[in-house]
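Encode chain A's predicted structure.
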Amino acid sequence: MALRKLLSRLSTPVYELDRETLRTYCSGLAGVTPIASAVPRQELRVVGEISALRIVPRADCPWLEAVITDGSGSLAVAWTGRRTIGGIAPGRRLVISGRGLPRGPKGRLFVLNPRYELL
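Encoded structure for chain A:
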């Protein structure tokens, strides 16, 4: 049985193993909702890892935009008027709280100016 498990892990792509590890970590925290289960227009609290980060140039003020993933899905968050936030970087895990908007970039759930807690 151990040999079968080892062969399974060796034949599984790395990104799937990483996603499963992240899903296990995120589901172990109390009081959070999986991103795949988050509902638009309701207050949500999710935990995940920043998979992408970019500055969106605007005429009046820039936005710092991040894609958060927890292994079950992903959502986009944006902080208006910010180019950087200390501690916000790709690969960093955090808890996001806010109200989800239904149509963000690439059809993802979108949270504008969320409260966050770095882990």
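The chain has two helices and six strands.
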